[in-house]
Design a protein that fits this description.
single chain; alpha/beta; Spore Coat Polysaccharide Biosynthesis Protein SpsA, Chain A; ten-stranded mixed beta sheet; 15 helices
């Protein structure tokens, strides 16, 4: 049965690009849970692979799935914004195109969509790229659901801000989204964070503690840009949003994390930072040799040595950080990975 737009309670909005290998599995995990009052909106940013054929197969069998293909790629921020504009739901779940909904996820979110709620934050578990390994049982370390009042914007940022880099966590009232500035945050890669924290939300925020999403970790299309993103784009966005206090922003991330020698060493350990990144991103921002010396030293540090130091740190001091440990072991500087690459090169 085709559901009339006025009856749509929840729109699951997916912005996608070249995800033919993954989006079918994502859609299957959603379609299996569809109920009356829920629709799926897939906005394709002009994929060049078989994404269109894959999604259309599901759309032909599922009347509640709408597929819109654009003539060109406008970027993930603008595509999610447009998907919300096209949605019919009272709330929009900004779902990713390669992760999976766990059984019961849609029902749990629908139960949280009360009249006084502006935003729902959905917790997730983290798996490796083929879901054969559970890396982290819960991204948010809470055992019970939480509620944040409209005036608790600082608390919301402190407790969930780091996790909200994941857009799939966001279920937002559509009217709240549309009445706020979005264009300022195009090309930030985190438009949802800009929308949420630009001013107080008019209603409550509900945080669902149970992990309702399985994240396919390591599959993000922006990973080749991770140094730029975590050292510049993300902190620039956080420090630009007006609503939270400077203290809350500082508790989440430094305004200029690239000045932190240890953070650069960790980036070096993960294979994201080298002398090339130094010359591209940091050298233009420093004015004297001494100002740039720590960053240059971190860039010139042997990657293998940095990786060993990071492994020791996450296995001893920060044993509560499975994702950074996983990143360190996935690095090209990790000894086993380096050995495999060396053997392949010699062959």
């Amino acid at each position: 049965m085709v559901i009339e737009p006025r009856n749509i309670r929840l729109s699951i909005c997916i912005a996608t690009l070249n995800r033919a290998r993954f989006i079918g599995e994502t859609l299957e995990s959603i379609i299996a849970q569809l109920t009356e009052g829920v629709e799926i909106v897939v906005l394709d940013g002009a994929s060049k692979d078989d994404t269109q054929q894959v999604v259309e197969q599901y759309a032909n069998a599922c009347p509640s799935l709408r597929y819109i293909r654009q003539d060109r790629n406008n970027g993930v921020d603008q595509d999610f914004d447009h998907a919300v504009e096209l949605a019919a739901g009272e709330f929009c779940w900004l779902m990713t195109d390669d992760d999976l909904l766990n059984p019961g996820a849609v029902r749990s979110v629908l139960d949280a969509l009360r009249p006084e709620v502006s935003l729902v934050v959905v917790n997730a578990e983290v798996c490796n790229a083929d879901f054969s390994e559970l890396i982290e049982e819960s991204r948010l370390p809470f055992r019970e659901d939480r509620t944040y009042q409209s005036d608790e914007i600082d608390r919301l940022l402190r407790e969930t801000g780091g996790y909200l880099t994941f857009i799939g966590a966001v279920v937002i009232r559509r009217s709240v989204w549309l009445e706020r500035d979005r264009q300022t945050y195009y090309d930030s890669l985190f438009i949802h964070v800009g929308v949420i924290f630009q001013k107080r939300l008019p209603g409550e925020v509900r945080m669902i503690a149970a992990p309702l999403i399985s994240i396919r970790y390591g599959n993000a299309m922006w990973r080749p840009r991770q140094f730029e993103i975590w050292m510049f784009k993300w902190p620039s966005l956080i420090w630009s949003v007006p609503a939270p206090s400077p203290a809350a922003k500082a508790a989440l991330c430094a305004a200029e994390p690239w000045r932190d020698f240890m953070k650069l060493v960790m980036q070096r350990a993960n294979g994201a930072y080298s002398i090339q990144e130094y010359h591209r991103w940091i050298a233009p921002r420093v004015h004297t040799f001494m100002e740039g010396l720590p960053a240059r030293l971190a860039a010139l540090l042997p990657g293998g040595l940095a990786n060993v130091a990071a492994l020791l740190y996450f296995r001893t001091v920060r044993r509560d950080s499975p994702l950074p440990l996983y990143d360190t072991r996935s690095s090209r500087h990790y000894f086993r990975n380096w050995l495999k690459m060396s053997r392949t090169t010699r062959a």
